[in-house]
Write a structure and sequence with these properties.
alpha+beta
Length: 133
C-alpha cells in the first residue's frame, strides 16, 4: 500500500452552520464545499489546508454514525484519512496483516472518493479511513 498523504481529518460537529464560521476565522480560509452523503447520514463541509483537508461532519440522522459518535463522545476529531492508490487493494492488504476492517470493500464517500474504514480496535483507538480517486 502506498500512502501519499493525509487526505483529510474528519471532525464531528453538532452544527455546520455554527462550526463553519469558527473554522473560517481560525484557518483564515473559506469553506469550499458542502455536500450531503445520504447513505452515511451526514452533511460535510471542507476546508483546504495545504495538501490536506479538514472535513466537518454534521449528522443528518441521530442513528447515523456521526449522530451516534456525538451522542457517545461529543464533538471532536472523528477520523483521520489517508490517500492511497487503490482503496480495495489497500483494504485487502491491511486485512491480510491482521487489521480489523469496518469496510471489506470501498464505497463512495464525499467528493466522489472511494473510501474504506479500518476499525479503531485495530488502529490504537483511531478510526482510520483510506481514500482513493
Amino acid at each position: 500500500m502506498n500512502v501519499s498523504r493525509i487526505e483529510h481529518i474528519g471532525i464531528a460537529v453538532e452544527s455546520l452552520e455554527k462550526a463553519i464560521p469558527y473554522y473560517e476565522t481560525l484557518l483564515g480560509i473559506k469553506c469550499y464545499a458542502i455536500e450531503e452523503v445520504v447513505d452515511q447520514k451526514v452533511k460535510t463541509a471542507f476546508f483546504k489546508v495545504g495538501d490536506t483537508k479538514i472535513e466537518l461532519l454534521e449528522s443528518t440522522n441521530p442513528e447515523g454514525p456521526i449522530g451516534k459518535f456525538i451522542e457517545k463522545k461529543g464533538q471532536g476529531i472523528h477520523h483521520i484519512a489517508f490517500a492511497v492508490d487503490n482503496v480495495n487493494e489497500a483494504l485487502t492488504e491491511v486485512e491480510a496483516n491482521g487489521i480489523q476492517l469496518v469496510d471489506k470493500q470501498g464505497r463512495k464517500g464525499a467528493e466522489g472518493l472511494n473510501i474504506g474504514f479500518l476499525h479503531p480496535k485495530s488502529t490504537f483507538g483511531v478510526l482510520t479511513e483510506l481514500c482513493s480517486e
